[in-house]
Amino acid sequence: MIEVQNLMRSYGRDPVIERVTFEVKKGEITGFLGPNGSGKTTTMRILTGYMPMTRGLARVASFDVFTQSLEARRRIGYLPEQPPLYQEMTVASYLDFVAKVKGVPGRERNKSVERAMEQTATTKFRHAIIRKLSKGYKQRVGLAQALVHNPEVLILDEPTVGLDPEQIIEVRELIKNLGGAHTIILSTHILSEVSATCERAVIIGQRPFYTEEEPRRAYLAGTVVAQDTIANLTLHMRGAGQLDLQIEGPGALVQSKLASIAGVKSVSYQSAMNGNVNRFEVESEPGLDLRRELAQAVVQNDWGLLELRAKDSSLEDAFLKLTQESNG
């Protein structure tokens, strides 16, 4: 439904994004995740036709966003970071105006406005002046304007920025309920947003690039460093096999013995605890479960094994690892 290949956008000699490639399948909710300044908003603006690309390919619903811009935009509902609201209009009149601008036929306009208000739970505010609404309900109206023409694709740029915790939960639930009927790409730098709302994530980070014209001059630009389901990205972190251990025994000797076990990549000393108890973090080769071997080594040396557990990994771990690697 959304296809992006080798997308690049530069300002003068300085690219903002470079070789950005990803796809979003029909009905998916995908998070477009990256640090501030990594090129998320630039990519969203290119996809929605607000900004031209320097080179590359971007298609929405099989339409090229550059050569078939009008057809692509008809199939997109866009919620920018600052919703495009006319503050002195009522909710219903504003949505009717937006529906008209987006080409919804007159005989269908009332039905389209009603459906968008129902989807965003704004029906009871149909006669309210927009400027008098809370921040959370203004965001709902912004989402309603993106939905009013019933687009196949929703592109949401930082949809919960500036909301309080209760409003964030409400908007997330709205977005989750829209999945399946719409293909959604959600741009954010908030990790919990993606974990709570999305099935897949595309992670963008900055990395150095070189040109043939200036082979010695490196420039930083945003590029995709990973894309997969949330579960698989988290599994990417667990693949190395990280274990936390608390062992009663001589710290240096314990560390040396654990490091000598086949399949152990590294043993890092974390801290000393009460008495002769020390805490270690062991990283094993991908795919290996070394808990039995580690326990045997401790017992054979007559040390005390007080704790041995797999270290939990999260999307935050994957995000930090991938974006830090991309900057390295």
Short description:
The protein has 328 residues and is an alpha/beta fold. 35% of the residues lie in helices and 31% in strands.
Task: Supply the key terms.
328 residues, alpha/beta, 31% strand, single chain, six-stranded mixed β-sheet, Alpha-Beta Plaits, four-stranded antiparallel β-sheet, Rossmann fold
Can you tell me about this structure?
The chain is an alpha/beta fold. Among the domains are: 160 residues, P-loop containing nucleotide triphosphate hydrolases (Rossmann fold, 3-Layer(aba) Sandwich); 69 residues, Alpha-Beta Plaits, CATH 3.30.70. It has 11 helices and 14 strands. The strands form 3 sheets. It has a 6-stranded mixed β-sheet, with helices on both faces. β7, α6 and β8 form a beta-alpha-beta unit.
List the helices and strands and how they pair.
Elements: E1 2-11, E2 14-24, E3 29-33, H1 40-47, E4 55-60, E5 63-64, H2 69-74, E6 76-79, H3 91-101, H4 106-119, H5 135-147, E7 153-157, H6 165-178, E8 183-188, H7 191-197, E9 200-209, E10 219-229, H8 230-238, E11 242-248, H9 251-259, E12 264-272, E13 277-284, H10 291-300, E14 304-310, H11 315-327
Parallel strand pairs: 3-8, 3-9, 6-7, 7-8
Antiparallel strand pairs: 1-2, 1-4, 4-5, 9-10, 11-13, 11-14, 12-13
